[in-house]
């Protein structure tokens, strides 16, 4: 929910809150009395103060006292504000009282007698009725004040929990990301080292590609989201770097779409699967096949990465890398991704789809 939507929601909620007095004054005549005289102004001020108290408790009192476990201070301040909200509106707008509704018949005014002297006069207010009215008002105001206090406190606690969860997820993502980057650097350096041992002419080209990759990792991949264009360029560099050391026994099929709409994506999510394909799908002594397909359709990314199992490696490390990516997907794209991994004795396939933002 963006800020404008939050403001609209707050305004709508407080508009409903301001009209709550109608619920406590049933009947059209009583509503006219409520909004047509001092009582109406007193209620308006009191409800306005309750709205102000909501934000005061949310932004100041709860963070300062509740979360610092200063419960006695919070209780005293809250009671002081309660009595202030109860008393202050009556000081601002003196309430001189209103006649009872049953005396407001046709031809009767508070200062005049009825049009005819026929029949008994209306009975004056009795003390028990005044006490009942005062008790009713205090009970209603206490209930509303308690609801405002609890609602603002619960919202603040919920907001605090969401911030704590976001911080935890950010820390967890940083930990998972830190596990991934050195792993890729180590494997890439191994590839260049192999080229150097062979004194291949492509060694310099490989160093340039590695330089571009490291620049991306150090300057962009540290962010929560990166340009999909740059992420796919990183993947292309990685694939081309691996291609330099492949023999004729490897059949490599690559088809990567070009982004057009400035899509964003969490960095380093796809490359672990590609790395595994090269690590466990390449063997100079066997016929190897690797397929990498990445397509874009309506802000959705579809990846298909397949390889034949021709190299025996550390399966535990492979599973650890996949589990890291799975955790990152759950944290960054909950309910917005599917990850399907299929493997047999000779084949390994990854099908990943992500709804981008």
Short structural summary:
With 357 residues, the protein is of the alpha+beta class.
Overall description:
This protein is α+β, with helices and mostly antiparallel strands and 357 residues long. It is rod-shaped, with a radius of gyration of 36 Å. The chain folds into two domains: 3-125, no CATH class; 164-355, Heat Shock Protein 90 (2-Layer Sandwich), CATH 3.30.565. The strands form two sheets. Strands 2-4-5-7-6 form a five-stranded mixed sheet, covered by helices on one side. Helices cover 59% and strands 13% of the residues. α4 (38-66) runs antiparallel to α5, α6 runs antiparallel to α7 (203-219) and α6 packs antiparallel against α10. Mean pLDDT is 77; it is low at 26-32 and 97-115.
List the helices and strands and how they pair.
Layout lengths: L2 H16 L2 H4 L3 H8 L2 H29 L4 H22 L34 H71 L5 H17 L6 E2 H16 L6 E7 L7 E2 L5 H10 L7 E10 L2 E9 L6 H18 L4 E7 L3 E9 L2
Parallel strand pairs: 2-4
Antiparallel strand pairs: 1-3, 4-5, 5-7, 6-7
Would you identify the CATH H-level superfamily of the largest domain? Histidine kinase-like ATPase, C-terminal domain
Low-confidence stretches: 26-32, 97-115
Question: What is the CATH topology classification name of the largest domain?
Answer: Heat Shock Protein 90
Distance between the termini: 15 Å
Structural class estimated from helices and strands: alpha+beta
What count of structural domains? 2
What is the helix content? 55-70%
Cα gyration radius (Å): 36 Å
By DSSP (H or I, 4+ residues per run), the number of helices equals 10
């Amino acid at each position: 929910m963006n800020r404008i939507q939050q403001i609209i929601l707050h305004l709508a909620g407080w508009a409903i809150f301001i009209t709550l007095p109608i619920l406590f004054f049933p009947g059209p005549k009583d509503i006219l009395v409520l909004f047509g005289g001092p009582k109406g102004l007193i209620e308006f001020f009191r409800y306005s103060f309750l709205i102000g108290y909501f934000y005061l408790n949310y932004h100041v009192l709860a963070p300062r006292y509740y979360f610092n476990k200063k419960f006695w201070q919070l209780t005293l301040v809250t009671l002081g504000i309660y009595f202030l909200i109860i008393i202050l509106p009556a000081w601002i707008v003196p309430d001189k009282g209103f006649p009872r509704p049953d005396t407001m018949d046709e031809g009767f005014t508070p200062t005049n007698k009825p049009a005819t002297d026929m029949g008994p006069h209306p009975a004056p207010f009795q003390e028990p009725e005044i006490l009942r009215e005062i008790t009713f008002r205090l009970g209603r105001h206490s209930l509303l004040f308690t609801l405002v206090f609890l609602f603002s406190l619960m919202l603040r606690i919920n907001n605090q929990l969401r911030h704590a969860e976001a911080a935890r997820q950010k820390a967890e993502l940083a930990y998972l990301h830190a596990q991934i980057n050195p792993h890729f650097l180590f494997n890439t350096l191994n590839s260049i080292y192999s080229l150097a041992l062979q004194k291949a002419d492509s060694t310099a080209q490989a160093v340039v590609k590695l330089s571009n990759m490291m620049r991306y990792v150090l300057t962009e991949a540290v962010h929560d989201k990166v340009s999909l264009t740059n992420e796919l360029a990183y993947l292309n560099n990685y694939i081309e770097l691996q291609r330099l050391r492949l023999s004729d026994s490897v059949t490599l099929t690559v088809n990567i779409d070009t982004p057009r709409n400035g899509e964003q994506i969490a960095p380093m999510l796809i490359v672990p699967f590609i790395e595994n394909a090269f690590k466990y799908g390449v063997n100079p002594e066997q016929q190897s096949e690797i397929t990498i397909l990445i397509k874009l359709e309506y802000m959705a990314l579809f990846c298909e990465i397949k390889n034949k199992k021709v190299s025996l490696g550390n399966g535990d490390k492979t599973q650890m890398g996949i589990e890291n990516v799975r955790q990152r997907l759950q944290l960054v794209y909950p309910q917005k991704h599917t990850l399907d991994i299929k493997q047999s004795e000779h084949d390994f396939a990854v099908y990943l789809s992500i709804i981008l933002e």
